[in-house]
Structures are given as C-alpha cells and as structure tokens.
Specification:
The chain is α+β, with helices and mostly antiparallel strands and 180 residues long. It has a single domain, classed as Sandwich (Jelly Rolls), CATH 2.60.120.10. The two termini are 15 Å apart. 20% of the residues lie in helices and 36% in strands. The mean pLDDT is 96. The strands form two sheets. Strands 1, 2, 3, 4, 6, 7, 8, 9 and 10 form a nine-stranded antiparallel sheet that branches. A two-stranded antiparallel ribbon has the order 5-11. The protein binds the ligand CSCCC(=O)/C(O)=C/O, fe (ii) ion and nickel (II) ion. Nickel (II) ion binds at residues 3, 18, 20. Fe (ii) ion (FE2) binds next to strand 9. Monomer.
C-alpha cells in the first residue's frame, strides 16, 4: 500500500506524520504543489515486458497526461533484483538532485520510495503500482529502489531529451530511512 511519511529535515528518526490513505496523502502533497493520484494499472504486461509493450499497454494514460499538460517525451524505467547494475543505479538516484521540469512518474509495476526535500521537511512517498506522482521542477529529491529492486514506471518529460538531473551535493539522503 502506498504511503506518505513526513519528517522534519533535522530529525530522521521520529516521523511527524504518516498515512496510507490516498486522499490524506494527496492532500498533504498538494499543499506542497505535488500531485499524487491512484490510477488504474490493470494491464497484463506478461513476464517479460519490454519498454515498447509497456508503453503500448498504457498509451491511454500517457495520452491523458500529454493532453492535460503538453508533455513532449516519455520512456520506461524498469529494474529487477537480477539487474547487473542495480547497486550503481540505486546509488545514482539516492543522490539528492533536481530537474528543470516536473518529475512525472506512473508506476505500473512494483514500488519505489520518492523522498522530497520541501520546506525543511522530508516527504517520503512510497509509490506503488497505480500511483501517479508529479513533483514540481526544481524540488530537491532522491529516489530509493531498494536493494532488491522491483518496479516499472513510465516517466513523462517536458523536454524532447528525457532524463536530465542536477545533483545538489547535499548528503542528506544518507541520514533518512531507506527501503529495506
Ligand atoms: C521511478 S523513476 C526513478 C528514477 C528517476 O527518474 C528519478 O528522477 C528519480 O528521482
Ligand atoms: Fe529525479
Ligand atoms: Ni505504514
């Protein structure tokens, strides 16, 4: 079940707030300009989905976002526990970074932990299959796929080039809980 846990940025041990209730999560995040919605992710992707088959299965969801916001490109990121570069990939996304555009992600399999550094708080959003999240451009954040990653997400971009990140150099992610 997706969840939101909020910490003060100076206290990584005692959360200020926690919920698994969709409306409550969306309400807290909306106060920070973050969009969170639970969508249907009920297409059968089979045992070995490719980026192409995943995009084809969820073209209706992509169309909806493109029609709403005029996004320009999209791709699929998928990680499994047998991925040879899983440790490097995990480390890369665990570095706090920003993007020059909204970070729009639709989880169609598995789960991952988005950690948003907003207003002297850390918002840890456990995103699961069916969750749509859109984090405003310029928000410092990191992402934990866990030691045994298992997720597929469609990433929607507001530029033709795709994923571009600027790392902040802040090591705050090292102090906060990770996926076990
Ligand atoms: C679920 S997408 C994770 C990787 C990524 O694109 C990103 O920007 C993480 O912050
Ligand atoms: Fe990111
Ligand atoms: Ni919980």
């Amino acid at each position: 079940m997706s969840a939101l846990t909020i910490y003060a940025s100076h206290n990584a041990t005692t959360p200020e707030w926690h919920s698994t209730e969709g409306q409550a999560i969306a309400g807290q995040l909306a106060q920070q300009g973050v969009r969170f919605e639970r969508w249907r992710a009920d297409r059968d992707l089979g045992d070995a989905p490719t980026p192409e088959s995943t995009l084809a299965a969820y073209q209706h969801a992509i169309d909806r976002l493109v029609d709403e916001k005029g996004y320009q490109s999209w791709d699929v990121i998928s990680m499994r526990a047998d991925h040879p570069q899983k440790a490097e990939m995990r480390e890369k996304f665990l570095q706090e970074h920003t993007h020059g555009e909204d970070e729009v992600r639709f989880f169609v399999e598995g789960r991952g932990l988005f950690c948003l550094h907003l207003d002297q708080r850390i918002y840890q959003v456990l995103c699961e299959k069916g969750d749509l999240i859109s984090v405003p451009a310029g928000t410092p954040h990191w992402f934990d796929m866990g030691p045994e990653p298992n997720f597929t997400a469609i990433r929607i971009f507001d530029n033709p080039e795709g994923w571009i990140a600027k790392f902040t150099g802040n090591d705050i992610a090292d102090r906060f809980p990770r996926l076990g």
